[in-house]
Amino acid sequence: VERTFTLLKNYERNHPESLKIVYVINAPSFFNFIHNWLKTVLPESIISKLCLLSKEECPALLGKHIDLSILPASVGGTMVDVNGDPNCPSLYKMPLNIPVPESLMLYNQFCVLDNDPNAMKTTVECGALFKVPCIVSEPNSNLQWDYQTLNFDICFGLSFRKDEISESKPIMTPRRVESHRIPESGNFFCEETGIYELIFDNTYSWFTKKDLVYKASVLPPHTDEEED
Length: 228
What we know:
Domain CRAL-TRIO: 1-83
Structural class: alpha+beta
Number of strands: 10
Strand order of the largest sheet: 3-10-5-8
Order of helices and strands: HEHHEHHEEEEEEEEH
Shape: elongated
Helix content: 10-25%
Number of helices: 6
Distance between the termini: 42 Å
Largest sheet: 4 strands, antiparallel
Strand content: 25-35%
Domain GOLD: 109-218
């Protein structure tokens, strides 16, 4: 439910005209509750594009937009696998109803989780701010970072100061990031030398501390090009 809501809200916010219609086929009975709830939180421009269909209704409606010969029989088309399976599992890169391989797990695609020996761990307390200073000694260096929170989101930003006694100036204003869903990565090309600070801001949360895993590095000029 939460993922569906987030997906639809992102469509509405960033690509309002790209979402033409959403067909929900053979939905379980409890989906009516979800549908009614979505009506209270999503704009009509999205709700009007959400269409619930039974298997019997599919051929007549989907046939207007999709060639039924390429649509699996299990969702109203006429296509079946060579063995007669109406679900057409051969269409999928991975077989249906099997565990996701370990190699595809996110923690194996990103290097910021608990199993990364180079990552640092800390807890950002309720109402607190945590900064990671990164010293850049050569102009045009590349500051890179990766981070993830374990259960909740956090505000992330970037600031700069010329030296220890200088006033800090914002480069990236802190904004809330759902880094508990997927690890975040980023970089910034530092034209000036000085102290760049990664900011993890939990001042907006009075009751929830945030467990944070992070790492940062500064690559000298031209390092990325040489590696390529």
